[in-house]
Structure formats: structure tokens, C-alpha cells
Specification:
Layout (H helix, E strand, L loop, with lengths): L34 E5 L3 H13 L3 E5 L2 H10 L4 E5 L7 H10 L6 E5 L4 H9 L4 E4 L4 H15 L8 E4 L2 E4 L4 E4 L2 E3 L3 H12 L4 E3 H9 L9 H13 L8 E4 L3 E4 L3
Parallel strand pairs: 1-2, 1-3, 3-4, 4-5
Antiparallel strand pairs: 6-7, 7-8, 8-9, 10-12, 11-12
Helix pairs in contact: 2-3
This protein binds calcium ion.
Calcium ion binds next to loops.
Amino acid sequence: MNSTPHRDDNSFISARPGHSLLPAPFSVHYHLCMRLLLVEDEHDIQSFLRQALAEAGYIVDVAPDGKTAESLAATHPYDILIVDLGLPDMDGINLILRLRQTGVGAPVLILSARRSVDDRVRGLEQGGDDYLTKPFALAELLARLRNLLKRNSPQAGEPTRLHVQDLELDLLRREATRSGQPLQLTAQEFVLLEYLCRNAGRVVTRSMILQKVWGMRIQPDTNVVDVHIYRLRGKVDGSGRQPLIRTLRGVGYVLKDR
Ligand code: CA
């Protein structure tokens, strides 16, 4: 891959069992302060990456299985995730799907021993943002993480706050307020509200919401969107506020911009 030459490109190592690694030099990116969730059950890779990523400036949490990953992701706002596909309790692809369904929008780098084109395509289609096969070079892993973070961070000049009437969304802190009053939203409700805000004044259909917020391409026989809109409306429009979320029966929803 074409990445900008970087000091740590010299540290070209593969993570192999039995090697406790980390030769110098590593360039340290303490300015990043990015929180990373590493989902990996192989102990050697786990401890190698935990140390290497910490030295590269990431705040690293490690989950050895899918269940732990789900509970960590539900309580911590991660900036990026590394997910192994062969986990003891579930397939990594299923984990990614489940995380996406609960509103985890952070980029996911799949790290897997499965090398076939089919596996890679499937991983990328099911919510992974990049795919790296084992054994891997640390320099390449770090470069891919940087690229994913760059791709997902607001571009220079791009707003980090959205305003619609008296509603304000802080996209960096993932916080929403109405007339300055904080709204207690779940991660998924925030993603849904962000999508409505970005399309304020326009009608969004259920299938658009399913695709953008839940990553589902087909409309399943489910009222998941209606249920979430109902809860979101309770929080955004409750307490006698001027209603912002309007339902167009049989069509979808619109966030009123005036
Ligand atoms: Ca594994």
C-alpha cells in the first residue's frame, strides 16, 4: 500500500507465536489519544499488539472474546477497533454486525488468518472497513489504522457540530442538547439523530435509515426503525417541547428544520 514514509516503517515485524517483540525504534504518537479496542484471543498476538499499540500512542483495551468486546463497546466510546475473525464464542463477522446494530460506528480493521478473497470480500461487506491477514507487519497495521482514522475524522473545515433549530449535536463528544438541555441518548439513538439532522427538512424512508444506521441493505420484516424513532422522539420532543421529528405515514420521517 502507498503510505507516507514513516519512521516506524523500519520496524517490519510479523507477529508470530513465541516472539515477545518490540524492537526499537517506534515513533510515538501520544498526540493521538485514540481509544482502541483489540478483539483477539491468541495470547501472543494480544500481548504483542497491546504493547506495540500503546507505544504508538493508543489507549488500548483488550477483549479475548466477542461477549467481552460487546460489553466493552457498550460502555466505552472507541475510536477504532481491531477484530480477529476466529473468536472462541462467535465469528468476528457476527461480532461486527452486532456492534453495528448497537450503534458502534467506529472503523473496524479485521485481522485474520483467513486469506481467501471470499473471506476478505465478506468481511468488508459485513461492516469491516479494512482487512489485514496474519502474519502481518506491524508497520502496515499502524499505517492502516492511521488511514482509517484519517478517513473517519472530520476533514479540516468540516463542522463538528450540527444545529437544527434549538437542537445541537456535538459530533466529537457524541452529545446532544435541546435548548442547551442535555438529551440522554444511547449510542444508536445518537447515530439515528445525526442521520436525521444531516437530512433535516428532507424525508428519510425506513429503508434509508436501516441502511445508513444499521447497515442493512434489505428491509427485514421488523419495526426496529419505528421502535427507535419512538424512543428518540420521547427524548428529543418530550417534556412539552416543540416537536421536531415528524412521521409521514407509510413513507418515513422528517426532522423539521423550521
Ligand atoms: Ca483467533
